[in-house]
Amino acid sequence: MLGIAVLFLVSFRIPHTLLRNQLGGPYDNDTAYKEKAGDLSLGKQSALNSSAKTQGFNEIFETTGANGIKLNARAVSFVKDYMDKEGRNLEKMKSWGQPYFSTIDNILVKYHLPKELKYLAVIESELKPTALSWVGARGPWQLMPETARLLGLKVSPKVDERTNYQKSTQAAAMYLKDLYNEFGDWLLVIAAYNGGGGNVYKAIRKSGSRNFWKLQYHLPTESRNHVKKFIATHYIFEGQGGLTTLTKQEIEEQLGASAGLIRKLNQEEIDNMQSQNISGKYYSEIVAKNVLMEVDEFNRYNPSFDKLMANSSVYELKLPSEKMSLFVANKYQILNESVQYFLTAATDMSTSKTIASRK
């Protein structure tokens, strides 16, 4: 039976409807974080948004982050309190957790998922491979036995691959990608990972919305707060928000419609892909020309590249291996050409305005 389940998984991916109701999803093993009554007041949240100061991150909520991302006002109070409570311990984890994060990053990139999803393992288990919850969820990703088996892991009295970092992270990546294909919204993915897709669909029906901030109070308290813990943890580690701390609507409003999409690449392309963090004013057409790619093909690997580069200090460039070699070899030439392009465009625009004003 296990062989059949694994074959089904590899061929078609697990439809999340198989996991939705009977399995309920993994659970964190923390007591649900209690929200203050003031969290229900958007007015109070807005006021906090302009005054919150948290250890290590002065005025972090006052303005839009360097990458163009702003924290939703409804999350400010919770995130600030959580950072005050857990920030010191999580700051220490930045150092001792690096080997774990490196392993997780490599696997998430392979499955073409945002690296920041690694912070889900932080709130699930504090990165402990032997973590065990009272309901039987185990490992760094707190997978339930039934879920783990459907994802191809061995779970028996003698062998429990949920505690294996490589294998459990691969299973979690498959599960997260399946959830994203189903919900198309990272906050709903985090809620479903914790409390099951059935609870998310129930909240959608009751609220009449797929926006987490509108449906959140129809979710179990633990799942609602799990999402906010994830957001807070992201802010502690990154110093700002990211794609995985926004609703689908917020991504479209703040970064553009295609910014939050998983790139449409096949497995062979993903296996042959390399990533590199870049900073500076690169322009998609200049990069594509120098690495011998069509612009449409370049954008398939890097959707909304120009918009995200304009709003972010760092961007994770993704290219086929041979194209990445060309980029590295010509990196400074590409940057120089890109800067010259923007300077020329700015000059042309200024000249056009001058001519228009004289008419």
Keywords:
two-stranded antiparallel sheet, globular, Lysozyme, 359 residues, mainly alpha, disordered N terminus, 19 helices
Structural class: mainly alpha
- Domain count: the total is 2
Question: Main sheet?
Answer: 2 strands, antiparallel
What is the alpha-carbon Rg in Å? Answer: 22 Å
Beta content: under 5%
Mean pLDDT, nearest integer?
79
Poorly predicted tracts of residues: 1-58
Strand order of the largest sheet: 1-2
Count the DSSP helices. Answer: 19
Specify the CATH class of the largest domain.
Mainly Alpha
Q: Ends: how far apart?
A: 79 Å
Q: Could you explain how this protein is built, in words?
A:
With 359 residues, the chain is mostly helical. It has 2 domains: 2-254, Lysozyme (Orthogonal Bundle); 267-358, no CATH class. The protein is 57% helix and 3% strand. The protein contains 19 helices and 2 strands. It has helices at 2-12, 17-20, 42-49, 76-96, 98-110, 118-125, 145-150, 165-183, 186-195, 197-207, 212-215, 221-238, 248-254, 267-271, 284-290, 295-301, 305-311, 321-329, 331-358; strands at residues 273-278, 315-320. It has a two-stranded antiparallel sheet. α9 (186-195) crosses α12 (221-238) and α15 (284-290) crosses α16 (295-301). The longest helix is centred in the last third of the chain and has 28 residues, at 331-358.
Question: What's this, in brief?
Answer:
The protein is mainly alpha-helical and 359 residues long. 57% of the residues lie in helices and 3% in strands.
